[in-house]
Amino acid sequence: MNCIIAASGNLLFTPRIKRLLEEADLIIAADGGATHLKQMDISPHAIIGDMDSIHPDTKCFFEKKHIPIITHPSRKNQTDTELCIEFAIKKGATTITMLGVTGHRLDHTLANIFLLRKLCTLGVESRIIDANNEIYLVTDHLKLKGKKGDLLSVLSISDTVTGLTLTGLEYPLENAAISMGSSLGISNYFKKTWVTISVLTGVLLVTKSRD
Question: DSSP assignment of the chain, as one string?
Answer without folding.
Answer: -EEEEE-SS-----HHHHHHHHH-SEEEEETTHHHHHHHTT---SEEEE-SSSS-HHHHHHHHHTT--EEE--SS-SS-HHHHHHHHHHHTT-SEEEEES--SS-HHHHHHHHHHHHHHHHTT-EEEEE-SSEEEEEESSEEEEE--TT-EEEEEE-SSEEEEEEEESBSS-EEEEEEETT--TTTTEEBSSSEEEEE-SBS-EEEEEE--
